[in-house]
Amino acid sequence: MIRVLSVASEAFPLVKTGGLADVVGALPGALSGHGVEMRVMLPGYPAVMAALDGATVVKRYRNLFGGSARLVTATGGELELIVLDAPKLFDRPGNPYVDDNGVDWLDNWKRFAALARGAADIGAGSLDAFVPDVVHCHDWQAGLAPAYLRFAKGRAAASVTTIHNIAFQGRYDSTVFPELGLPAEAFTIDGVEYFGGVGYLKAGLQCADAITTVSPTYAGEIQAPEGGMGLDGLLRARQAVLSGIVNGIDTDVWNPATDTHLARTYTAQRLAGRAANKRQVENEFGLESGDGMIACVVSRLAWQKGMDLLGECIDPLVAAGGRLAVLGSGDAGIEAMLRAAAARHPGRVGIVTGYSEPLSHLLQGGADAIVIPSRFEPCGLTQFYGLRYGCVPIVARVGGLADTVINANIAAVDAGVATGIQFLPVEAEALKGALIKALDFYADRPLWQRLQKNGMKADVSWTASAARYAELYRSIAPDN
């Protein structure tokens, strides 16, 4: 049995702002059949502390980045947790990263340095009851942990840094370095120094024993200047320890045959059950009733996600007979653009701002297609949900989208393996073409059902990827 501490800023079902939480929440169960005992380390946000069962204090800090703190072991749902209970840093309402005005908390550098410091202490053996062989660090919020481990004295666990989105790097001014508790030699290009400041994700990539990202195509994209966002040189230098492992999803949580968020459950053999969900989507999003195609979006409304491109395609989509249901929030300009489209096309375009887990399930179970026009996408999870639910993905041919959706070109359709529609370049005209293609395919119901059923047969679970993670952990564990 190999022991792994998975360190992250969020994990489903305790706290979630995006796909990172789903991945972190699903990995422990996926790995349990591979001889891996994984515990998840999270910050002690109010929602996390309220969900703990059987909490036990296992370590106390008198002063951790300006306040007292405790490490608490507990269960939360099906997760075995180690929680950093540091009220001065984490006991605040709302979003984990930003205040009520959408501005980053000014002390985020301190909050997530504390998380990394606690993780490294555990990796160095501070808890007798759980001494990990590997510390698995997710994104910049855990990025300093490999640096703390590298500069620790004595025994230390190996470390893995996983990049879920390289656009978020955790860059801070050099003035924070003296407060981090790292030795002076850590502030070099071979340590945490990054363009004259401190780079949290950079530190994780520089100091970890292994680097992963969430799809093979994205692993290649981030080694190029346009995809690496300043870190491409480092990643090329560490290419030998970089790999792309595709995400999976929890197929028990995302199962159209048992999903309680649906108006009616269904299977690939009983696709007619989707009709009741389609009627519910129409009700929830104010769409007129009908049999025409409903395309949906479940996304952050951001430039990265290509939502501005979608805005340019709404009028042609509606003119061709399509409808659109959008669930998401983000950039104020994009939200306003989508609301204006809904006002221009009442009954044809509907938008619900914010995020709703039940509505996201309903859209996958009731809409006909899900549109994911991302300019870059490390892996993405919504296309997996679409495949699982027979909601045909329409995706940009980038990152994990290219790796996980089989484009419905003539050869793939004839071979009976197509699962969705890809487009490139990531421009409005190409997206419009993909949407019109989807409408044409939808008009051929036998063809559309083949796409749906092919997608529903795809293995979107963690089975293969969990085996790869287990193999990676064993390859870097100190005793191997």
UniProtKB/TrEMBL annotation:
GO CC annotation terms, alphabetical: cytosol
One example of a Gene Ontology biological process annotation: glycogen biosynthetic process
Location of the Starch synthase catalytic domain: 3-236
Molecular function, one GO term: alpha-1,4-glucan glucosyltransferase (UDP-glucose donor) activity
Reaction(s) catalysed (UniProt annotation): [(1->4)-alpha-D-glucosyl](n) + ADP-alpha-D-glucose = [(1->4)-alpha-D-glucosyl](n+1) + ADP + H(+)
Pathway: Glycan biosynthesis; glycogen biosynthesis
Domain Glycosyl transferase family: 289-455
Pfam families the record matches: Glyco_transf_5, Glycos_transf_1
UniProt KW keywords: Glycogen biosynthesis, Glycosyltransferase, Transferase
Bilayer-crossing regions: none
Residues binding ADP-alpha-D-glucose, per UniProt: K16
Listed EC numbers: 2.4.1.21
Family: Belongs to the glycosyltransferase 1 family. Bacterial/plant glycogen synthase subfamily.
Function, in words: Synthesizes alpha-1,4-glucan chains using ADP-glucose.
NCBIfam families linked: glgA (TIGR02095), PRK00654.1-2 (NF001899)
HAMAP family reported in the protein's UniProt record: Glycogen_synth
Name of the protein in question: Glycogen synthase
Organism of this sequence: Bauldia litoralis
Gene: glgA
